[in-house]
Amino acid sequence: KHRPLAPPRPRLALLLRGMPLPPTPEKKRRKANEGAKKAKQGNGDVEKAQKDAPTSAAKGGKKKRRKEKAGKAANTGEELSTTQERNARKRASKKRAREVVSADPSMLYAANPLLAPTVLAARRFFEGALWSESFEVHLGPVQGWRTEAKLAVRAGKEGLQIGLFAPGTHEVCCIDTCPAHHPAINRAVAKVRKACEDLGVSGYSEHTGKGDLRYLKLDVERATGKVQLTLVWHAASEEAAGARLKALVQRLSTMPLWHSIWANFHPAVSYVSRIFAFESDAWKPLWGAKEMLRERLKGCLVPYDAPRLCFPPYVFRQANLCAFEKIVASLRRFVAPGSRVVELYGGVGTIGLHLADLVESLVCSDENPHNEVCFCTSTADLPTKLRRRLSYRRGAAATQIGSLSLADVLIVDPPRKGLDEEVVAALLPGGVAAQLRLVLYVSCGFPALQRDVGRLQEGGWTVTHAEGFVLFPGADHLETFCVLER
Prior knowledge:
With 486 residues, this protein is α/β, with parallel strands linked by helices. It has 14 helices and 17 strands. α7 packs across α9.
């Protein structure tokens, strides 16, 4: 009736007798693996001692091993953690800073500007697209060409740092005597540095969010060699800037170098990429000429008195006006007499004001609200017959698409990012500019031009002419003038 009891299992028998149990096979394998791992890594006792009582040397060894591990993972294509990626970027950034902070980043290709990577890329692109033409690149003087400069001012261990940020960093490369700068700019930087050091004016610190002077903007009046100086001050107003700003302006005003001295009050405490504050009350003239700085493009001949362009510090001005004159002169060759022209991204009218004799009408536009006053001030010097042909509309390019329906010629000179999507869409089949047959494209960003031209070619446009202008000799940059027809 009753099944006999099974004899106890060996481990249970030992347990009942109070004897220690032998290790299981799994435990034996785990212990063997741990022993092999310790033997591979080194002396187990030393490693245990380091873990129990970590010294600075041990910590340094761990940090080194983590770096080596991250480096091996990057080289082998393994996925890095978020922390490893962030630390790798920081190390790479610091390494780049050490390598290039001593070199003027604006002069990297000064030995032969025509071999800059962007110039070579433009040649390959256009010579493949044009077939019947070679892509000509114009090069002017490689020294003294820059008549407009924006320079960072930062607090450094050895005093005030004035110059350009090294590529990919916010480490300032001091360039008090940059060969690319107009001599007046180099003199102005030296004067400002000396005055700041004498008066205790400090450079801005991005780490603490404190300091006085953030940037300098310097515009040279080419006819006189005088400089329009803008001090970008870390304060919300002239009153908040205090006595140091007043003392600095008073010291500088005794020097005959200046056309005028302005302040831009930029109180942002966190990191911002923009140099200026753009609020209307952020700009204030502190000393000097009441009239705006004026320039004539003497290298672009027109059959009337060349307009005097207006360049106060709060509008865009080409850094190399001497070279830009050649672009405007080349563009004039493609505007037929009696054309109805629309110019988008027109700035103060640097291009459009030099076409007054060729057009039946010209509508210029730009989003900067200050540009319209500059444009109208310049047109006031033109003969009445020519002045009536020109008009200005305030607004971004995307808001001016409707004006394209009555135009024969479109001129665009966009920022480095290229054409707005709305502008490209208007030029494609089915867009509002169906009757438009000619686009004159002036580009300061070759990758964006390459993208825009590719899309327009798909929409039926053809590149019929293109030429390059090295506006910034020494930098990897190319200004491009491109003609498209359909």
